[in-house]
Amino acid sequence: MVSAQSGSQSVFNDTYVDARTMFIGEANKTGAITESFEHPARQGPHGETLTAGALTMDTAWIGPRDATAVMVMICGTHGPESFTGAALQLDWLQQHKQLPSASMAMLLIHAANPFGWAYCSRTTENNVDLNRNFIDHSHPPEQGALTQPIQKLLSRSSAKGPHFKRILFGLVKRLLRIGPTKILDEISQGQYSHPNGIGFGGNSAEWSNLTLRSIFTRQLRHAERVTIIDWHTGIGKYGKPCFLCFDHPNTDEYKRARRMWGAGIDNSNASYSSGKRPSYQGLLINALRDTAQATGAKTTSCVIEFGTYSNIKMLKALLIDRWLRCAANAAKPETKIKLQTQMLRLFYPSDPYWRASVLKSGNAIILKSLASLHDQMMEP
After folding, report:
1. Strands 157-158 and 225-238, how do they pair?
2. What domains lie within the chain, and their CATH numbers?
3. Sign of CA dihedral 4, 365, 263, 220
4. Which of the four pLDDT bands, split at 50, 70 and 90, describes residue 274?
5. 226, 266 Cβ separation under 8 angstroms
6. What is the CB neighbour count within 10 angstroms for residue 249?
7. Quick one: which of 252, 264, 255 has its CA closest to 297?
8. How far apart are CA 143 and CA 164, in angstroms?
9. CA–CA separation, 60 vs 354, rounded Å?
10. H helix count then E strand count, the chain
11. Are 95 and 363 in contact (CB under 8 A)?
């Protein structure tokens, strides 16, 4: 078994290229089977030329190809959050000794959204929130009555950045009139009518969506038990894990999640200002869970967030991210750099205490998950 001690904070990188280089290097040292899936983009968000192979989604498979129990760890769904999940993957690779059983395997998916990671954006090359993209696009959710006014409010900005005070004042007015739950839902759940807005889920399946589904279908065809962790940051207490399980509490999937990760599975609502988790649409974790189940596997899945700052500060980060992609053309270069750095550090603090806490908690979660998956193998 792997030691419960986490590794050096050198596993935290500040560029997509450095993180990918270290991931591939450590995976090869471990003897993993690696694959790279080239992103088709040939232009960056500002028209810069991209060479072939500049952006890739990478995977590392450790263990037998016909493993009956597989643990999957995904990082990179949202650009600024990618570094943390990548650090946990890299830390595990560096500390790796052996899996609890010869019938088990680990699948690491590095850079679910390589474009967003490389350009420090939560969205894809099409300004799509990948974590709202996994819907039936032939029948997208209808626009709610709040969508247009809220998106218009969230888009208020100038060449200097988002009009944060005006936006906050407008949200408070609406909050007092209709309550926090509806406002949080409208901002967070995803929308499919405003391409330049926050939480846009796209008009069709993104490249990352199709590639992830293909990886799951092919790689997990022998698996009977699958555990899936999608690493994120921004929700929860500073440096502490927040568990978001999207299975219904009465299902076997939820019961397995609770046995694996404990009572924190029941308390995810406490991390939201409204006291209720938003009605998210098009989640990556749910789609990949369903893909694994379609091959006959019993699944245990969870989004695991590491908390950073207050809900108001994280709203500011979302507004900056939207501004950088959709409204920053007339801004001075130094303004863009300043705001991008601010947004990055809201999702990815450089604080050594935060990073040490993430490594310690993340390492313990991985070990507990592997042990619990092994115990599942013993069940009838």
Report:
1. unpaired
2. 9-139+204-377 (3.40.630.10)
3. negative
4. low
5. no
6. 12
7. 252
8. 25
9. 27
10. 12, 9
11. yes
Tell me which residue has tokens 């609502």: 269
37: β partners: 57
Give the whole-angstrom CA distance, residue 86 versus residue 216.
19
Q: Is the pLDDT of residue 117 over 50?
A: yes
Do 104 and 70 form a contact (C-beta atoms < 8 A)? yes
Q: Residue 124, class by beta-carbon neighbours within 10 Å (0-12 exposed, 13-18 middle, 19+ buried)?
A: buried
At 317, list the tokens.
Answer: 């980060």
Residue 142's DSSP bridge partners are none
Q: Supply the DSSP symbol for 207.
A: H
pLDDT digits (tens, 9 = 90+) for 220-234: 999 999 999 999 999
Q: State pLDDT tens for residues 289-325.
A: 999 999 899 999 999 999 999 999 999 999 999 999 9
Exposed e or buried b per residue across 270-298, where buried means at least 16 C-beta atoms within 10 angstroms of its C-beta: ebbebeebbebbbbbbbbbbebbeebebb
Both tokens of 79, joined, read 């650009």
Q: Decide: 277 and 261 in contact? Cβ < 8 Å.
A: no
Residue with tokens 């029948």: 139
Q: Assess contact for 347 and 81: CB atoms under 8 A.
A: yes
d(CA 213, CA 290): 10
CA–CA separation, 22 and 247 (whole Å): 34
Distance, in Å, from the CA atom of 195 to the CA atom of 55, rounded to the nearest integer, reads 23
The two tokens of residue 239 are 């440096």
Q: Span 261-290, mean pLDDT?
A: 83
Q: Count the Cβ atoms, other than its own, within 10 Å of residue 37.
A: 18
* Nearest C-alpha neighbor of 85 from the set 102, 54, 110: 110
Show the tokens assigned to 246: 């999207």
Specify the residue for token string 């007015």.
Answer: 173
